[in-house]
TrEMBL record:
SMART domains given in the database record: CRAL_TRIO_N
Name of the protein this chain belongs to: Alpha-tocopherol transfer protein-like
Pfam name, any one: CRAL_TRIO_N
Gene, per the UniProt record: TTPAL_18
Organism this protein belongs to: Araneus ventricosus (Orbweaver spider)
InterPro entries (alphabetical): CRAL-TRIO_dom, CRAL-TRIO_dom_sf, CRAL/TRIO_N_dom, CRAL/TRIO_N_dom_sf
Length: 234
């Protein structure tokens, strides 16, 4: 068992009982109209992401459901099964089978696998959200955090047209205060001029803490070789 996970679990045991009860009181009180899961395992995702600050964890839970059921209901509430399957089968996103030295999980995204002629932007957003939410199901990831590793080689003007300011705002909001995930780092490689322009817009809405955890390189890196030899800067 990773040492960082072991230490995190010790903190959990002391904090989670009262924190989960406090969240449930909020759900049955002023937020009784919030339709979401109330089991301990689900609420712990948000509490661990905010280091058991009940107020901040509950705010993140509210934001997630606000985004998915209201603000971006057209993206998340009405999912087309066939289009979703195509996005998930495209190779756009996956979980790497190893963690970093501190136990953090790694989510991988490849822009070159997103063929805009076949997969619409809403399906890509659903795929991305599902990748991060499924990673958050694991207690080790909740405690140790997550790295986002994105190979953005192949980003074109077609991608730029799909990623309107509304969707760029959604990306920034997911990274900033929506997902029950503690981001340890955001690593962008093979960033072209087109992608740097797109990311400059996202960067406006990110918190200072997230900006400091963002690293990027503009070099032409052999990504498959990098993954196979684990030559990651994690």
């Amino acid at each position: 068992m990773n040492e960082f996970f072991r230490k995190g679990v010790k903190v959990d045991i002391k904090a989670n009982f009262h924190a989960v009860k406090a969240c449930k009181r909020s759900l049955s009180g002023e937020e009784k109209n919030l339709k979401c899961r109330t089991d301990d395992e689900f609420l712990l995702q948000f509490l661990r992401a905010r280091k058991f600050n009940v107020k901040n964890a509950f705010a993140r839970l509210q934001t997630l459901y606000q985004v998915m059921s209201k603000t971006f209901a057209d993206v998340y509430a009405d999912i087309d099964d066939e289009r979703a399957k195509k996005a998930f089968g495209s190779g756009f996103g996956s979980h790497l089978p190893f963690r970093d030295r501190e136990g953090a999980a790694v989510v991988l995204m490849r822009m070159s696998s997103w063929k805009v002629e076949d997969i619409d932007v809403c399906s890509i957003m659903n795929c991305s959200a599902a990748l991060h939410l499924s990673a958050a199901d694991y207690p080790a990831t909740q405690v140790c955090g997550l790295h986002l590793l994105a190979d953005v080689k192949g980003t074109t003007l077609k991608h730029m047209r799909c990623l309107s300011p509304r969707f760029l705002y959604l990306v920034s909001k997911a990274l900033r205060d929506t997902l029950p995930v503690r981001f340890k780092g955001i690593h962008l490689i093979n960033a072209s001029a087109i992608f740097r322009y797109i990311w400059s817009i996202v960067n406006i809405f990110l918190s200072e803490k997230i900006r400091k955890r963002n690293s990027s390189t503009f070099d032409d890196i052999d990504f498959d070789r990098t993954i196979k030899t684990c030559e990651l800067w994690l």
